[in-house]
TrEMBL record:
InterPro entries: Isoprenoid_synthase_dom_sf, Polyprenyl_synt, Polyprenyl_synt_CS. It comes from the Bacteria. One of its GO terms (biological process) is isoprenoid biosynthetic process. Its cofactor is Mg(2+). This is Geranylgeranyl diphosphate synthase type I. Belongs to the FPP/GGPP synthase family. SUPFAM superfamilies: Terpenoid synthases (SSF48576). Transmembrane segments: none annotated. Keywords: Magnesium, Metal-binding, Transferase. The keyword Methyltransferase does not apply.
Length: 372
């Protein structure tokens, strides 16, 4: 049984192998396709592999769970190659989502590098080609994201083919389909809130922001990877319920931490400009909590500035100060702590392996105390 570090290494090696194989295929078609591999390598080289880790420990939690008949089961590692494929599939899916998300948010950077659409724009500009530089960048990045989506599905299928339990394989595919559907719709709900918030009743803004968190991030970042791994191990219904009861509140806490970093994070650590979520106009739980607590003048300023892509450093500082003084940051920190406690409580007495439960509890702290 590999630990987290070894699992991350296995996934990294598999991703490197996949991209090497795909590079050979693309080179046969045209040398002009090299950016698709180069940009993919950069995207997949970074990240913390949290989704892969949750998938792996979801699998471990079920396959090592004691039963009345066999209180100390001997874990069977034969499905590990299948799990590595599935973990790699999640990482490639995440890369695709980042590419598309950066287009929708008009982001300039991702993990300290230019976002994919900006990189395609640079190719166009440096080559002095005809037509719109911005249009070329968006189109190239859209196709890169679509290509990555296809590759993630191929990796998932490869993993499912290796699973010995065909019923488990079908259940795992169902979980992946659910995840893909929900995160896509969650993305739409996110852009809907950015565009339509002025037409919504004030009392609806917080629950609507919470709904975005659940479907755009919480399920996809934590709950779904856990459920995928658990399903691959042949989880019973109560075990799927247990990993969901842990994964959903932890996923909410994970995204709330991300929202704080999107406003207050250190660019040197996050790889994104300071206050990037403010320029993008993200209607997060943080903003929904801050607005009603602000004086009328400060609230009007927030509404005027939020979503302005030209915000300068001084304007960012003004908004950061207003949000802090509203008490919203402290409230979000309390909500994070509450959700972490709720997630950990769901592990107590859950029909899951004890070592995996301990590891999942440690992961809960890791993903919600991070600085990037």
């Amino acid at each position: 049984m590999p630990g987290s570090t070894r699992l991350v290494d296995l996934v990294h090696d598999r991703l490197d192998s996949v991209l090497t194989d795909r590079a050979a295929h693309l080179a046969q078609i045209s040398p002009d396709l090299e950016p698709f591999i180069g940009f993919s390598r950069d995207l997949l080289a970074g990240g913390k592999r949290f989704r892969a880790l949750f998938c792996y420990w979801g699998w471990e939690a079920v396959r090592t769970a004691p039963t009345p008949i066999d209180p100390l089961p001997e874990p069977d590692d034969r499905d590990l190659p299948a799990i590595v494929e599935m973990c790699a599939a999640l990482e490639v899916f995440h890369a695709a989502a980042l590419v598309h998300d950066d287009i929708m948010d008009n982001s300039d950077t991702r993990r300290g590098l230019p976002a994919a659409h900006r990189r395609f724009e640079s190719i166009h500009g440096e080559s002095r080609w005809a037509g719109s530089r911005e249009g070329y960048g968006r189109s190239g990045a859209l196709l890169l994201g679509d290509l990555l989506l296809g590759w993630s599905d191929e990796l998932l299928d490869a993993g499912l083919a290796l699973l010995a339990d065909r019923t488990a394989a079908r259940a795992t595919r169902d979980e992946f389909v659910r995840m893909r559907t929900e995160v896509t719709l969650g993305q739409y709900l996110d852009i809907l809130e950015e565009a339509s918030w002025r037409s919504r009743p004030e009392a609806d803004l917080l629950p609507r922001a919470h709904r975005v968190i659940v479907y755009k991030s919480a399920k996809y970042s934590v709950e779904a990877p856990l459920a995928l791994g658990a399903a691959a191990a042949g989880a019973a219904a109560e075990q799927i319920e247990a990993v969901r009861a842990f994964g959903l509140p932890l996923g909410v806490a994970y995204q709330l931490r991300d929202d704080l970093l999107g406003v207050f994070g250190d660019p040197e650590v996050t790889g994104k400009p300071a206050g990037d979520d403010l320029r993008e106009g993200k209607r997060t739980v943080l903003i929904a909590l801050a607005r009603p607590a602000l004086p009328a003048g400060a609230r009007q300023l927030l509404d005027e500035l939020l979503g302005d892509p030209e915000l300068d450093g001084r304007q960012i500082e003004v908004l950061q100060t207003a949000i802090r003084e509203s008490g919203a940051v402290d409230k979000v920190e309390r909500i994070i702590a509450h959700n972490v406690d709720k997630a950990k409580s769901a592990l107590m007495g859950a029909p899951l392996g004890p070592t995996a439960r301990a590891q999942l509890s440690r992961l809960a702290d890791t993903v919600t105390r991070r600085s990037s």
